[in-house]
Specification:
Length: 37
């Protein structure tokens, strides 16, 4: 994936969507909180 062309906000959204698709809802929330802080 072209990480360089992905914006920080887009990367966070993609990461959250990827985690949710994998069924790791709680992990997704924790990851988003870490990236937001």
């Amino acid at each position: 994936m072209p990480f360089v062309s992905i914006r920080k906000s887009d990367f966070r959204t993609i990461s959250r969507t990827y985690l949710v698709k994998r069924g790791t809802d709680k992990s997704g929330e924790l990851t988003e909180n870490k990236l937001s802080s």
